[in-house]
Design a protein that fits this description.
Elements (H helix, E strand, L loop, with lengths): L1 H11 L9 H22 L3 H20 L3 H21 L1 H13 L20 H16 L4 E5 L6 H4 L3 E6 L2 H7 L10 E5 L2 E7 L15 H12 L3 E5 L6 E5 L2 E3 L4 H10 L4 H19 L1
Helix pairs in contact: 6-8, 6-10
């Protein structure tokens, strides 16, 4: 016991608690926030399996260092740089998606709002009604459809894969485009503002493993384009006749007409709607106060 006490006394006296500044706490919070989001992102990509393999290799290197296995340590030192480069090449698609996702985040939207809302918004109420009507009619007869609505991120690279339309959005035009056995029914329609810019466009497929196996190419393409852009994609299933909405990589299935109209209004960016919402909130506050 005396020896243990002597050991603890000698070692504990050399220890001291470092002074912690407010800036250190901020740094810890930022690092923890970044690590958490990196792990959450990695869990949905191939990086998660790769990390588990890396942990095993690191454990093996620690054992080699503990037993002073000089040959293995020499190999590790010389291969380390090549391994890092190989990881970047293997994970290039995932890293690109992550960086594009960061670029789409409006971190300074409140301070630097370059895209001010207008009275009409990105598209008019008439366009919303025409899209909802077309999707409802196509769902009834199980006509497959894929409609991508542009926001801030440009969809020009996907437009180039299709056929130019440049027509005003109408339910009749949308239904005619996706009608079976017509030249334009295969592929996606892209809408910018109140106009259909192109049809038969090819979209990237999502590699999200959490999507149901029963979902076909149309749904995976809708989710895929929503993962790399801020567009909202409407999918009408040819098999079930149900309407789905893909936005920011998330798929909402079995959407009714009222819900579809609500989702479209959310991205409309209409100044008048914002004023109405503020008026409703003020009225509710006054009612509660009374």
């Amino acid at each position: 016991m005396q020896q243990i006490g002597f050991f603890l006394e000698n070692n504990l006296t050399s220890l001291h608690m470092p002074t912690i500044r407010a800036l250190d706490v901020v740094e810890i919070i930022i690092i923890a926030f970044l690590i958490y989001h990196i792990l959450v992102w990695a869990k949905t990509t191939r990086l998660w399996s790769l990390l588990k393999g890396v942990v095993i290799i690191v454990g093996f290197i620690v054992i080699a260092a503990a037993f002073n296995m000089s040959t293995i340590l020499w190999i590790v030192e010389n291969v380390f740089g090549i391994a890092i480069t190989a990881m970047v090449v293997i994970l290039q698609p995932e890293l690109r998606k992550a960086l594009e996702g960061i670029g789409r985040k409006n971190f300074f939207h409140g301070l630097l709002n370059f895209s001010e809302a207008t009275e009409e918004g990105r598209f008019s109420d008439k366009t919303i009604n025409e899209i909802v009507r077309a999707c409802g009619e196509m769902a009834k007869v199980r006509t497959g459809a894929l409609i991508v609505i542009e926001q801030m991120s440009s969809l020009s690279e996907f437009e180039r894969t299709g056929i130019d339309i440049d027509g005003v959005v109408s339910s009749q035009l949308l239904i005619n485009i996706f009608e079976h056995n017509t030249p334009l029914h295969d592929g996606a329609v892209i809408i910018r503002g109140d106009r259909i810019t192109s049809a038969t466009c090819y979209l990237p497929l999502s590699d999200n493993m959490e999507l149901g196996k029963e979902l076909g190419t149309r749904h995976r393409a809708g989710v895929g384009v929503s993962e790399i852009t801020d567009s909202l994609t409407i999918i009408v299933s040819e098999e079930t006749g149900k309407i789905s909405v893909a936005y920011m990589g998330e798929l909402e299935r079995a959407v009714e007409s009222d819900r579809l109209r609500e989702r479209l209004r959310q991205i409309q960016n209409k100044a008048q709607d914002d004023k109405k919402d503020k008026r409703k909130k003020n009225k509710n506050k006054k009612g509660k106060a009374k």
